[in-house]
Amino acid sequence: MPQSATAELGHNQPPDPIDEALAPYGDAITEAENWLDGSPVENEDQMHAVDMLIKHIRSAKSDLAKAKKSATAPLHDAWKAEIARWKPTEDDIERRLKGLAAVVDPFKRKLAEEKEAAKRKAYEEARAKERAAEEAAAKADAANYEESSEAARLKQEAVDAKKAASAANKDTVKGLRTVMKYEITDYRAALHDIAANDRDAITAFIEEYVRRNFKDRKIDGVNVWSEKEAF
User: Fold this and answer.
1) Which of 33, 132, 152, 214 is most exposed by smallest CB count within 10 Å?
2) Which residue, 32, 141, 16, 150, is CA-closest to 70?
3) By the 8 A CB rule, do 206 and 222 touch?
4) What one-character-per-residue DSSP string does the chain give?
5) Burial class (CB in 10 A: 0-12, 13-18, 19+), 126
6) pLDDT tens figures, 52-62
7) In terms of pTM, does the model score above 0.70?
8) What is the 3-state secondary structure (H, E, C) of 169-184?
């Protein structure tokens, strides 16, 4: 195959949709750069010239958006189709997980309460044995074999009880987590608390609320006016 033919095949690619969309507006795009030198318009002729450029650039923006939608729509549709293909299976797995968790939840809660009670009891017993051992050690006469032996026995019991309490503390129910929850009981009090302790959050809320609603109703503390601007 001739080299020229190979070159032609190598360049036989479809035109870039971006280039195609902007092709009719090349002169307007270039001319816009000439006007964007920091100098404002000074007379009506210049104003009309810029208005015409704005019209062309606005059309370029519109055609570019249409080309983008045309080029990306198949990809987006394919993405949505693939997401939709996975969703039923993901939902089914999630339902099974939630269902199994719901089935075992009451028993795990009950077991956790029992283990917590056992842990408290073990620590209470450990503290009691430790106090008994300390009292026996304080009273024991080193020259009295029976007293010193009893004190040693109680000390060992205290050590064993402490180990048992430590083991009980580690004996937890797997698959049971602590979840923080809340209930608003007084909206006014909560608002005052936020205003006093997180003013940035209140400011952000006010600014966003005013931005969304200032056209629809009068808001105390907000000035609203209209003015002309180029677009």
Assistant:
1) 33
2) 16
3) no
4) --HHHHHHHHT--PPPHHHHHHGGGHHHHHHHHHH-SSPPP-SHHHHHHHHHHHHHHHHHHHHHHHHHHHHHHHHHHHHHHHHHHHHHHHHHHHHHHHHHHHHHHHHHHHHHHHHHHHHHHHHHHHHHHHHHHHHHHHH--TT-HHHHHHHHHHHHHHHHHHHHHHHHHH---TT---------S-HHHHHHHHHHH-HHHHHHHHHHHHHHHTTTS--TT----------
5) buried
6) 999 999 999 99
7) no
8) HHCCCCCCCCCCCCCC
Span 173-191, pLDDT tens digits: 888 888 899 999 999 999 9
- The sign one gets for the Cα dihedral 34, 39, 42, 44 is positive
Q: Which two tokens stand for residue 231?
A: 């677009």
Contact 158, 109 (CB under 8 A): no
**Chain length of the chain:** 231
